[in-house]
Queue: 4 jobs
Job 1
Amino acid sequence: MKKLATALLLTTLSAPALAADKPMPGDAAPIFSATSLSGKTVALDQYRGQPVSLVFLDSLCPMPHWPDCESELSKVQKLSAKDKKNQWVGIVKGFYIDESWVKSFAERWQLKFPMVWDQNNEIFSQYKVFGNPYQIWVNKEGKVVSRNDTIQSSAR
């Protein structure tokens, strides 16, 4: 019982700390650089001057903890395909999979934008993203505009 009480207390005390360092609208978006599935470097800095949608995904769809993942992935594919004014970058959670699995996932869902396999979940951690799909819009100045647990066609 004492261990449970301690764990609950630590969780309660650390929740504000976790929220405090989460990049929120108006904050500078954390800079990252990673290799895409096509072998090219994807760096947030390369999108300066244009809005970019960072879409955080888990390639283990379908799964019980991600209801309606098929419809959300279909939505991502359709919105990104018709959006010519914004850039899109997919960041795929790294746990329990390998790069070939992520490539197969991107092909199956026809995700044509740059896809990064976040092997050690470093980008997920930088942005404090714990669920998926999750979208963060970054404006042309490199600031977070919105954080959404539903996919949007543009920043709101």
Job 2
Amino acid sequence: MNSPLGDGTIPVNRPCLPPAERILPYLREIDSTRRYSNFGPLHSRLEIRLAEHHGVHAGNLALASSGTAALVALIQALIPTQAENKRLCLCPSYTFLGTGAAARLCGLEPFLLDVDPITWALNPDTLEQHAELEWAALVLVVAPYGRPPDFVRWEEFSQRTGIPVIVDAAACFDAIDASAVVRGTIPLAMSLHATKTFSTGEGGMLLAADPALIDRASRALNFGFQNDRTSVGPCFNGKMSEYHAAVGLAELDGWATKREQFIAAGQAYACHGERQGWNQALHVRVDRASPYACFLAPTQEQATTLAAALSRKGIGWRRWYGGGLHQQPSFRDCQADSMINTDELAWRLIGLPMFPGLSPQAVATIADVIQSSLL
């Protein structure tokens, strides 16, 4: 089958970053300033422009070299030391590896939790009754596939339990209400990786209400330095380079068009889903840019059938979170709850192609495969 991409396949993801001509003026600025890293002028400009884009103050936002680095910096800034009896980070098993890896890099041990079958995320009401709360230094909440959590409920949870909460909002660049976040108390980290909607190629972003927390996180990203050569607190090298900031500035220049392309792809999926009667199983955004289109098959067997059908047609697909962290060799030694919902969700949820420039014809082809596999 020849796809609209002309290479015989429809990939599950096809990143699209700014073209060279749009990045070039920023690269020339780097040539002129000879600043390549260490919070240079492009880095500062990107922070300011992103803050304006999200309707927050520049002091509420910081950049990092990756989404994982952003998470690590937030953890180090929020809980610089842990009591000997509080070494656990409570987090969902149904997430990307970066969530658990960030906790471990900060000296915490992930305790893996099952997720709610409807939200695919942790439930603060259920978690409040968990036996391990007294040993928890942190709760890492995940926004699965860019679906933001209920920040107010998590604020109430944190207030009642006294346990800090951070949101891993990796894919939430266009989904998050940043102004609401900075009116609250729960900080978050985003990914600016090439596979996300807004990208610097590789990068991360931190958002918090408290500028002092952002300052501490920025210091943690820079070996503990801030305006001097004195290292204070937990730290590492997680700064965003000027080259990545250049890509980010060029990306922001063309963001409106790219955003429209993501939304158009989501709307095309939704149109087919509604017409063919499986829109309830389809999870896409039609009002915001999202890097994910997911199909929740009625059963694991039907998910397997769909995956095989997509493969036969040369259409890419993914189980983006695999079987969950508890299935990964590097996390199998973690304490964990029973994973009834995670095990079911991980095998029923199929990630479909989603990227800017995904044509209506390609979506129609994918929709036909979904429809035939459900018969």
Job 3
Amino acid sequence: MRIIAGSKRGMNLLGPDTRDTRPITDRVKEALFSILYKYDVIEDGVVGDLFCGTGSMGLESISRGAKHVTFVEQSAKVVEILKRNIEKARFEQESKVIRGNVFMMGAPVGPEDEKYNLVFVDPPYAMAADCGEGSKVAKLLELLCGQLAEGGIVSVRAHKRTVLLDEYADLKVIDRRDWGNMAVTLLQLTPAGGEDD
């Protein structure tokens, strides 16, 4: 695992000794970021990295010009590695680490914090198997509607057999790409009436 572009291009990331995380390959990460660039949500953006593991997507975002990333991860052991990766990259000023249950908190926004331009949602495949109405993933995406800036993007990584609804409240699916056994679905916040403006 490494940062593949930007100010920390080529920096290797520390990973856990276990299979608790599912690192994304460089090829897929590069392809995904190429797609995200056309939505103008990375440069000077506020990013959430949920189920972040060792922080690959959030750190890549900072390296490519994101203003701030909030990392949310439940595993204490993985959070320790995440913090070491942030320190190694010297991204402490641009990062906030929260240990907690993503399904309960989403991408927390503090009273002075800006809403998010981009949120990565990367739960274990088993947790994302059901994305139907009333599922944990559906409730999380609905929660994110209140934490995203208008036009904000959510990137959901899941098994390619996982089927997402076309919309979750004001989040609408705008793209889906399959790589191997995984799929990444992009949703955009389009508040009711916003499409006519």
Job 4
Amino acid sequence: MLATEQQKELTEYVFNWNRKNGIFTDALHTFSNVVTPQAVTDYSLTEIWEGDLYFCLEERTVFVGSQKVDLTTKEFDALHLLIINKKRVMTFETISYHVWGEDYIEVTTQAIHNLMSRLRQKLQTAPDMPNYIISIRGVGYKFDS
């Protein structure tokens, strides 16, 4: 375990290295305005990096490259479900249960298709970006980078 001073130095180094190399520039700028490097060591975040995709559960933020992606609550919840179950197929029923909660019984597969379509469009910030959300015809969806 690193001492507090070592944690601070490591965090500052990573922040500065990422800034210098242009990785998540907008995200780091946003974080540096809200969270100091010392504060980062005081609590841990559920952060997931998949290629150019950055996902933070607690801050409910998503970035593709250095571009922030604004998601609705349902889009974020659907992405969260898929990303934590990477490569596992989530059925329509599972998606509706986890995204819509108690109202999941009334959700149609068309509503789920529409949700996933909007989510795909928002995540594909450039034509050469990978399609993170894969449709499994007649069954559901999965996340795969």
